[in-house]
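ok so for the tutorial part 2 we go from a plain amino acid sequence to predicted structure tokens. step 1 is just haveing the sequence, like this:
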Amino acid sequence: MAVTQTSPETPSRLLPLLRQIGATAFSLVITFIGLLAVTFIISRVVPIDPVLSILGERATEAQMEEARERLGLNDPLWMQFGIYLNDTLHGDLGTSIRTREPVLEEVGRRFPATLELATLATIIGVLLGVPAGVIAATKPGSWFDQITRLIGLMGYSMPIFWLGLMGLLLFYGTLGWVGGPGRLDAMYQMTYDFDVTAYTGMIMVDTALNGRWDMFANAFSHIILPAGLLAYISMAYISRMTRSFMMNELGQEYITTARVKGMPESRVIWVHALKNVMVPLITVVALSYAYLLEGAVLTETIFAWPGLGSYITDALMVADMPAVLGGTVVVGAAYIGLNMLSDLLYRLVDPRART
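step 2 — the prediction. this is what the tokens look like for a chain of 355 residues:
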């Protein structure tokens, strides 16, 4: 009777992968603790008294001292950080001074709006930026290359708030092609609040799942302008990096060999070269997406978009530090999560990274 033996190479193949997973998890934990340490330090060095913000200026000294004791502000800093770390890991980001509601609940209501805006902008930026960068790299110095570089330069140079105001003035105020500020018209907003089942908090997804295509069209008319502006910034960055990666890749020996063998140029560029470019491009797209998640503050303000960026800005204006720090922690966690996702995708695309 034959006995099946386990190959001795199996453990040796698993060990490097396990080490990589362990190192990545350890790095993420250290990064998140560092993020919490930074936000904790900020909460202690800003010239804002949290007790004064909670009780108001008419509170007596005894009431303020009692509040400090209750909040643990008289404890040593290391003990305060330990309590802050424990609360955050258990999902407690504090209570908003303005609304007296848990910050995590408020962020949970606001974050889907930012996620929807940033996701659509990133999709548009990738669909336009990657082909533009590839074509520009295959025709360096051509009119297409010059236009692509000019568009990218303008995307880096033009202030987003100016583009937003001009976009509203032209496409909404003058031409009427798009919806105005906000996520929905007032009539549709009331209907959405009462008649639509909110599965995700992202209006376009929820209206599609509920079969409300009229409301979907209205939501699209509102999101397309701010998403288009953010997509322009994303496209400028992605196209520039794609062009740089492709020009470096097209100079490699395997590309020359493929051409000498008579392989079609389209296959050389769009299959072989682009496949290798996708490895660093994943990181570029992930960073661009993370930037849009936290960098859409001005866009959300201009378009009255009730997302995380406007939430943090409004909280900062009234010195609501629990809300500011809670929103900052969520944005940082999104950065960490996207870095982890890009690392996993990197390993899937490039087999050399798994060894």
